[in-house]
Amino acid sequence: MRRFFGSTGSVYRLTIESHVLGGNMLGDPTARVVDVYVPAGQEGEGLPLLVDLVGFTGSGLSHTNWSGFRENLPERLDRLIGEQIMPPVVVAFPDCFTRLGGNQYINSASMGAWEDFLLDEMLPAIEQRFRCGGAGRRGVFGKSSGGYGAITHALRHSDVWSAAACYSGDMGFELCYLPDMPAVLRALAGAENSIERWWRQLEAAKKHTDGAGKVINALAMAASYDPDPTQFLGIRLPVTFDTCEIIEERWAHWSRQDPVVAVETQADNLRRLKALYIDCGERDQFNLLYGARRLVRRLNELGVAHRYEEFPDNHTGVDYRMDESLPFLARALFA
User: Is 10-170+260-334 assigned to CATH 1.10.357.20?
Assistant: First the structure.
């Protein structure tokens, strides 16, 4: 719902036929839609490029859709740019939804090569079409799973991204994922401990049952962090079905992709960024605050420049935090 009534930008819709997503285990389409925002009075040429990675169960297209009682992201950008709170930027909104409800924006033998899609297919297509971005002028931002994607891309690909913002991103895996495992196992027990049977019942159901979200999330994370192509949709859990004990080898695959762990070997990439923004709500119901604090403590110890903020809210409905982060990223990419 628009709150700024000045000049409005344009949203273009591109379809990118992906080669790297071909043959993914989930059977997801390889033709992926990307909405692209271009500010009013601009064609994109010479502007920095920001890429929006949305949270789990979302799509970039949800951020360009009309929304009641609040701005969608193009409307927010119109206001921030129109009121000169931030310089003009092009913003891309990729649809990365999957059969499992989304992904973590990394390569997976189950989910598909989403990291490669974003870096090797989407970015070149957008930059060629709008003549924007380029070396030193690309930023990535996202919340929740999208925040995980943003910080992980920053940790791995500072040669591509020059700025990153992570809002309430998945980290501190033993706090945000393991607490759900007992409930996941209880749900799977009702399907004779069969992930395939539980999932097919979910897909056949007229509506999802209460608590299904926790199971969907856990199964999708398993397919992202520790895929097993011999299993149904590549999914295997990191805990035993009977006693919910951690399977050390499998959990190690998860842990090495936790930003709190990855920063130990990839901090130099963060040092190359022009800007790094991290925030989290003080009442985050998924325990992500504690992971954020752990990461930030280590960044301070390692001397990695960043901006960190905690705010008095939880995990839900916090898009307003982009009023802080997007100008911060855009100004850094113009420097």
Answer: no
